[in-house]
Specification:
By secondary structure, the chain is mostly helical. It contains twelve helices and two strands.
Length: about 290
C-alpha cells in the first residue's frame, strides 16, 4: 500500500478523533466532568445526516446537526449535570448519570431509526477523487482534514482572543477567584458544554460517509477518545490536536500493515508506554487535575 495513502488515512481518521475529543477535553478542563455521553451527540449528528442530507444538502445539515446537538447538550447540562455539581455529588455519580444518558440514547435511537446500520452517502459535490501524480485520494476525505484544521484554528483563536475564551481560561485556572471578580461560571460552563456537544454533532455528520452509522456508535469510539484526551493532556486543546493525529496514524499503520485488531491494540500500547514517561500527557498540567 502507498505509504502516503496510509498517512492521509491516518490524518483523516485523526481529524474525526480531534473533533470529538476537543469538546470532551474542553469540558473536562473547565468543569472536571468526564462525559461518557459525549458520543451521543456524535451519534445524533450522524443520524440527523441520514435523515436530512437528501433534503437539506450538506452545508445546512452540518448547521442543523450543530444546533441540535448543542441544544441537547445544553439541556443535559442544565437539567442533569448542573444540579449534581451544585449538590456536590461525587464525581462517580456524575459519571453514572452520563453513562445512563448514553444507554438510553442508544436504545431510543434503535426505536426511531431501527437497529440496522445506515448508509450515509458522500455529498455529491465532494464525491470525486483528487489525483496528484500517481496518488489518487477521495476529495471528501481531504475536505474532512481541511474542515477540521480550519475549525481547530478558529477554536484556538477564540479561546485566546475573545471574551468567552478569556473567561474560560480564568475559570479553568482558578474558578473561585474568577467568580469573585464577577464571572458568571454557570453561564460560561453551559456555553462551553453546548459548544463541545455541537462540535460532536458536526463530527457525526462528517464521519458518517467514512465510518458507519449504527445505534451503538456512541460507545465504540469512546475508548479511543479517552486515549486522545489523555495523551494530549487533560484540558489541552493543542494536545488533543497533536494526539488525535498521532493516534490516527498509529491506527492507520496498524490496520495497513498488521490487522484491524492489531491496530487497536497498538494504539493502547503506545498510550501506556508514553504515559510511563509522561504521566500528564503532552501538554497536561498538574493544576488542571485539582
Amino acid at each position: 500500500m502507498n505509504i502516503l495513502v496510509v498517512i492521509l488515512n491516518g490524518i483523516t481518521i485523526g481529524a474525526i478523533y480531534i473533533l470529538l475529543a476537543s469538546g470532551l477535553t474542553i469540558v473536562f478542563g473547565l468543569q472536571g466532568i468526564v462525559n461518557v455521553a459525549h458520543g451521543v451527540f456524535y451519534m445524533l449528528g450522524a443520524y440527523l445526516a441520514v435523515s436530512l442530507l437528501p433534503h437539506l444538502g450538506f452545508a445546512l445539515t452540518l448547521a442543523v446537526a450543530f444546533i441540535a446537538a448543542a441544544l441537547l447538550g445544553l439541556a443535559m447540562e442544565v437539567i442533569g449535570l448542573r444540579p449534581l455539581i451544585r449538590w456536590k455529588r461525587h464525581s462517580l455519580q456524575v459519571l453514572v448519570f452520563t453513562l445512563a444518558v448514553a444507554i438510553i440514547a442508544s436504545e431510543v435511537t434503535k426505536m426511531v431509526w431501527g437497529p440496522v446500520p445506515k448508509l450515509l452517502q458522500t455529498p455529491a459535490a465532494l464525491s470525486e477523487v483528487v489525483t496528484i501524480g500517481t496518488l489518487t485520494y477521495p476529495t471528501y476525505w481531504l475536505f474532512v482534514i481541511g474542515f477540521t484544521t480550519g475549525l481547530m484554528a478558529l477554536l484556538g483563536f477564540a479561546f485566546k482572543n475573545t471574551t468567552l475564551g478569556i473567561l474560560v481560561q480564568s475559570l479553568a485556572l482558578n474558578s473561585e477567584i474568577s467568580q469573585a471578580m464577577g464571572t458568571n461560571a454557570l453561564r460560561v460552563n453551559s456555553m462551553v458544554f453546548a459548544l463541545g456537544t455541537g462540535i460532536a454533532g458536526v463530527a457525526g455528520v462528517l464521519a458518517g460517509p467514512i465510518l458507519s452509522v449504527y445505534p451503538t456508535m456512541c460507545f465504540d469510539l469512546l475508548m479511543i477518545l479517552f486515549v486522545v484526551v489523555i495523551l494530549g493532556g487533560l484540558g489541552s486543546l493543542l494536545g488533543t490536536v497533536v494526539a488525535g493525529i498521532a493516534v490516527g496514524l498509529v491506527k492507520s499503520f496498524g490496520v495497513a500493515y498488521l490487522t484491524g485488531t492489531a491496530g487497536e491494540i497498538l494504539t493502547f500500547v503506545v498510550m501506556i508506554v508514553f504515559l510511563v514517561f509522561r504521566p500528564l500527557g503532552l501538554f497536561g498540567r498538574v493544576g488542571i487535575l485539582k
